[in-house]
Design a protein that fits this description.
This protein is α+β, with helices and mostly antiparallel strands. The chain is 37% helix and 17% strand. It has 19 helices and 25 strands. The strands form six sheets. Strands 6-5-4-7-8-10-9-11-12 form a nine-stranded mixed β-sheet, sandwiched between helices. It has a four-stranded antiparallel β-sheet with strand order 14-22-18-20, sandwiched between helices. α9 links the parallel β4 and β5. The chain is flat and about 75 Å long.
Length: 610
């Protein structure tokens, strides 16, 4: 291995089996921790030899694992721009592909494959590349890929026209009830296509991945697969509108310039046999854009579109919006046109059961005729029945509880002095650079529905509750401790919360750790709530928080604590307001239901409208 091999803070965390926050803490606490030898202030690089020696001296590392040595050897053999090409070449060499990586890298990977096995080694290289480039690489979560694959019927050939690293095709192969005999894919990036082919070949699957843009340079013009799966690029303007105007694939209409996703849908339909299935993960706007209503109408009229299932926000790798699964089937010449289509919203874990219930019992079915209006809006929530919650409880008890809460509410208002004061401000970013506070951000993509470790999610922070997510401790996972401030990175209403117990953080969260001798965490959280909202960027009503720009006053610690105490009192007041409003609405619902059901009778009193 090169003597000048470097590692990131994330690499160090992986080597030591800790979170990134621990590495940041070591850098501050230990004066002998190796200094950066490159990189940037936000992403420094360290000498691997120096880090290895330091970890051993601290008893945090016995021996650098061989797989990690191989990865560092590969990563340090080239620059970031060429890393994917090198990783792909090494992976291809392991499965007998047409690749010529540097001999020393091929030899190291071959020895690792002897130890781990070819399949495990290729997947190891893929995972390490994705982890190293987690901020730039967008891949579907394993759960999304598995859900899309599970919707397919047994298929001998499966096609993905925008296959990336092959995640959807891997899921089609791994589906418990089916082994796809042959898989085909196309990918714009040549190195990515090679790595996808290597991953699938390592599984022992007959695979063919070709390079190029499926829309403008279709590499499989005669393809007639049993099924197709696809997560198309969202909102592409330059997808080939001008040159593809008269393309025979547009059986349901020419996709508008701003509707690239509808071009991908029709491409998938053109590349499956009559009766073949297509499952596409679509952005929610594709269901409502006025420019696409003609194509949506044709998909319905011909019985091609069989279902639209809304998924939770964040399920798509390239968007934080709630995507939709479009389930389609290419009609055969003699197929009867169905009269119903599935409209549903559900969690990922319920998708398969919802689809099966529709096929078996027509549960969730919507008449196609009812969808064919001027808008042809395919948003499921527009048609789903609103849940009516039965109102229970005693009106007199709710009235008494509301009166007690109302009396208590006035006493929770914080006592503040109406006296203007000039505050000298700084930014959180300046405080970070000065070392007064420490900032960490959790990964954008984490599994939060399965695993053994409780995860505090962004929604938990917003609702002020304990951790409800479930996951595993992975690279980049952050453990927060009492006194840390957490704030969602993407939210509709900004909430900054001071933790009172140790907890593992889920995705989309900032963690701010303060030096208690310099800062009061409640003071910091209070100012972050409003300042972070003012400096946030907005998109479709969602705020993207940039906490580094948040304004924080420069105040002595004793004054910070006064502010911190008042901010805590303000939070208690807000909770009291919410509880009062909740009981008040409950009382109103009880009275309304009682009057309409006949269990309550009106009392005639003098009444004047406001």
């Amino acid at each position: 291995m090169r003597d000048d091999a470097t590692v990131t803070a994330g690499d160090i965390a992986r080597l030591a089996g800790v979170g990134r926050a621990a590495v940041s803490n070591w850098r501050r606490r230990f004066q002998d921790f190796p200094e950066p030898v490159g990189g940037t202030s936000s992403n420094p690089l360290f000498s691997l030899n120096q880090v290895e020696c330091w970890l051993r001296s601290q008893g945090k590392l016995d021996e650098l694992p061989f797989d990690e040595r191989v990865w560092q050897q590969i990563r340090n053999s080239t620059d970031d721009l060429q890393l994917l090409s090198v990783v792909s070449a090494v992976a291809c060499s392991l499965v007998g592909g047409d690749a010529n990586p540097p001999p020393e890298l091929a030899d190291a990977a071959s020895r690792l494959a002897t130890e781990l096995g070819t399949r495990e080694t290729v997947e190891f290289l893929y995972r390490r590349y994705v982890e190293t480039n987690s901020r730039r690489v967008q891949v579907p979560s394993p759960k999304v890929a598995a859900t899309m694959a599970a919707l397919l019927e047994p298929s001998d050939t499966v096609f993905d026209p925008h296959c990336g690293f092959g995640g959807l095709l891997m899921a089609a192969v791994d589906a418990a009830r089916r082994q796809a005999g042959r898989v085909f894919g196309q990918e714009r990036d040549a190195a990515m296509a090679k790595l996808a082919a290597a991953r699938l070949a390592a599984q022992g699957v007959e695979v063919e991945i070709r390079t190029g843009d499926s829309l403008t340079a279709d590499a499989f013009p005669d393809m007639q697969a049993d099924a197709a799966v696809c997560i198309p690029p969202y909102s592409e303007r330059g997808w080939g509108y001008e040159e593809l105007t008269n393309d025979p694939r547009w059986q349901h209409g020419l996709p508008p310039r701003g509707e690239s996703e509808l071009a991908w849908v029709q491409h998938c339909l053109a590349r499956v046999r009559p009766g073949g299935q297509v499952v596409v993960l679509m952005p929610p706007a594709a269901a409502t854009r006025r420019s696409g209503r003609r194509i949506r109408s044709q998909l319905l009229r011909t019985g091609t579109l069989q279902g639209v299932i809304g998924l939770p926000a964040g399920s798509a790798p390239q968007s934080t919006q709630p995507p939709q699964l479009w389930l389609l089937r290419r009609p055969g010449d003699n197929d009867a046109v169905p009269s119903q289509v599935l409209m549903a919203n559900c969690e990922l874990g319920d998708v398969l059961s919802v689809w099966r219930s529709f096929l078996k019992e027509a549960k969730g079915a919507m008449s196609i005729i009812d969808l064919l209006d001027d808008e042809v809006d395919l948003t499921p929530s527009r048609y789903l029945a609103k849940t009516v919650v039965a109102v229970t409880g005693n009106v007199d008890e709710s009235r008494a509880e509301l009166a007690a809460l109302s009396r208590k509410l006035a006493g929770t208002v914080p006592n503040v002095l109406q006296e203007p004061r000039a505050l000298t401000m700084t930014t959180l970013g300046e405080l970070i650079r000065a070392g007064a506070v420490q900032l960490e951000q959790t990964p954008m993509r984490m599994e939060t529905e399965s695993g053994e470790v409780p995860l505090l999610t962004a929604k938990d922070v917003t609702l002020g509750r304990g951790p409800t997510g479930r996951g595993t401790v992975e690279v980049g996972t952050i453990s927060a401790r009492p006194g840390d401030v957490v704030i969602p990175a993407i939210t509709r209403v900004v909430h900054a919360r001071v933790l009172t117990e140790e907890v593992t953080l889920g995705p989309h969260l900032f963690m701010i750790r303060v030096d208690p001798e310099l800062f009061d965490p409640h003071f910091l959280a209070g100012f972050l709530r409003l300042s972070a909202e003012r400096t946030a960027s907005t998109h479709s009503g969602t705020l993207r928080i940039d906490v580094r720009r948040a304004q924080i006053p420069r105040l002595p610690l004793n004054e910070q604590r006064r502010y911190g105490t008042t901010f805590q009192q303000l939070e208690a007041y807000e909770r009291a307001i919410d509880e009062t409003a909740k009981v008040g609405k409950q009382l109103a619902a009880q009275i309304l239901e009682g009057l309409t059901a006949g269990s309550l009778q009106p009392v005639i009193e003098a009444f004047s409208s406001p």
